[in-house]
Design goal:
Length: 216
């Protein structure tokens, strides 16, 4: 009975949510698009002609917003294990971005272009058990960071959803070693009770050369 009441309460809150209503009116796939919209408006990390990769993109709200803001310029690549309904102007790759076949597919589609911006709004399915949920969330954030280190061009930007808790401070330290600036954002569309925040890392530093590489 308590689960039924909880579910009914969530549904009432969801459908009365101003951002849900706004997304429906504006033809956006999710209220999460307004979190990204606020960050992009404030921090200006999306420039005309940008190449953007959206990790864990389904249902596509972030990719859809980026495509709208880029207009006819640039490229948007959306990756997810789950299927996603087609978005005009968004190149969707279904699969696990840790797998070599998926990465090779992305490389072919990039056709030599470098990535300007990596986005990750990924979160695990929450069990309600705080510590296991936090560990799973941080594991996804680590995967997104590993991807950005591999694919972002020097000077590029990375936006990732984080949950405050175990591993959070250590993760931020790792971000700061790889980027010239790291800023925390809590968009208005983020529910106040949620522990979620967004880390925006800009100015990716070039990977250090190994001792065997030619520095001439």
């Amino acid at each position: 009975m308590s689960r039924s009441k909880s579910s009914a309460g969530w549904l009432r809150e969801h459908f009365n949510d101003e951002y849900v209503k706004k997304a429906q009116a504006e033809g956006l796939r999710s209220r999460a698009a307004y979190k990204l919209e606020e960050v992009l408006a404030r921090d200006r990390v999306l420039r005309p002609g940008a190449v953007v990769v959206d990790l864990g993109a389904a249902p596509g709200g972030w990719s859809q917003l980026v495509r709208r803001q880029l207009g006819d310029s640039g490229s948007v690549f959306a990756l997810d294990i789950l299927p996603m309904q087609e978005i005009t102007g968004v190149d969707f790759l279904q699969g696990d971005f840790r797998e070599q076949a998926v990465l090779q597919d992305l490389e072919q589609r990039l056709a030599g272009r470098q990535v300007d911006l990596v986005l990750s709004d990924m979160a695990p399915n929450m069990s309600g058990m705080a510590l296991p949920d936090q560990i799973r969330a941080m594991a996804l954030a680590e995967l997104a960071l590993d991807f950005s280190r591999q694919w972002l061009k020097p000077g590029g930007s990375f936006l990732v959803k984080l949950f405050q808790g175990v591993g959070f401070d250590e993760y931020l330290r790792g971000l700061r070693t790889g980027f010239s600036s790291v800023t925390m954002r809590k968009p208005k569309a983020s529910r106040a009770r949620s522990r979620e925040v967004y880390a925006l890392a800009t100015g990716r530093r070039p990977a250090p050369m190994s001792s065997g590489e030619n520095r001439a």
